[in-house]
């Protein structure tokens, strides 16, 4: 990712991609004092931009630091960087972190940096996998309790177990890991939330008390309710996957991704999944494409 043309917005300046570097004694690299966002641009405009910028500011606040600029300025910087790179449909990655002024666990007066990168990006999961439903396996790691880690922040440190979990299941040929929480309840995938269509026709999704309440998750809940589909947020035990008729993931990168398999359980992407894919495509202003499972 580092060796390419283009620009990265870096502390207020548009820096050539290859020159957007940090020092090895950056606090964030040693102690995970970084928060980030993942956004998508559709037709040149970033979907739910202000919600993402606000979440970035909130994540920083949770980790005990403040962004170097306002939420409004983050919005404008994101728009500037997609324009500078000529991105029409792509991904946007803002990141804020503690710099290299202080080394040690305590780094009260380190400088807070902000950078925003963007690149053209298609579907997160491969097209073919998407049509059949992706294959998940339960992760070897569990989401921590809210008093064990800052679970409401989109903080770099929380992704250590996500990368380890995803690598572990990828070795066995799976697309992603399904993570349970510390109680053993269904939580989410490594970078997306999870929904189950139960035999009663209702959409069930874990109550987000120890993982990210995704912006896509909330969008899909609204889209489902607008269709008259009831949505239930509750604790879900992994054994309940046996009763699920359809399962899908939601996330900025994943959008609405059908799931075909989790461990011993099998699902067939059906009507509710198709409706949510179509409605999400419509609300993001996508033209219908091969990416659709419909
Ligand atoms: N959970 C995790 C761990 C994630 O990384 C993401 C992606 N940001 C999500 C859920 C989905 O969040 P969103 O819909 O806001 O992208």
From the structure above, extract its key features:
294 residues; alpha+beta; D-amino Acid Aminotransferase, Chain A, domain 1; D-amino Acid Aminotransferase, Chain A, domain 2; nine-stranded mixed beta sheet; seven-stranded antiparallel beta sheet; 7 helices; 16 strands; disordered C terminus; binds 4'-deoxy-4'-aminopyridoxal-5'-phosphate; Aminotransferase-like; transferase; pyridoxal phosphate
What is the CATH topology descriptor of the largest domain?
A: D-amino Acid Aminotransferase, Chain A, domain 2
Whole-number total of structural domains: 2
As a percent range, the share of strand residues is 25-35%
Hetero groups in this structure are: 4'-deoxy-4'-aminopyridoxal-5'-phosphate
Q: What's the level 1 CATH class of the largest domain?
A: Alpha Beta
Share of helical residues: 25-40%
Gap from first CA to last CA: 33 Å
The number of helices is 7
Largest sheet: 9 strands, mixed
Total strands = 16
Work out the radius of gyration: 19 Å
- Let me know the average pLDDT: 94
CATH architectural group of the largest domain: Alpha-Beta Barrel
Tell me what you see in this structure:
- The protein is α+β, with helices and mostly antiparallel strands.
- The chain folds into 2 domains: 7-120, 2-Layer Sandwich (D-amino Acid Aminotransferase, Chain A, domain 1), CATH 3.30.470; 127-283, D-amino Acid Aminotransferase, Chain A, domain 2.
- It has 7 helices and 16 strands.
- Strands 8, 9, 10, 11, 12, 13, 14, 15 and 16 form a 9-stranded mixed β-sheet that branches. Strands 1, 2, 3, 4, 5, 6 and 7 form a 7-stranded antiparallel β-sheet that branches.
- 4'-deoxy-4'-aminopyridoxal-5'-phosphate is lined by residues 38, 188, 191-193, 211-212, 214-217, 250-252.
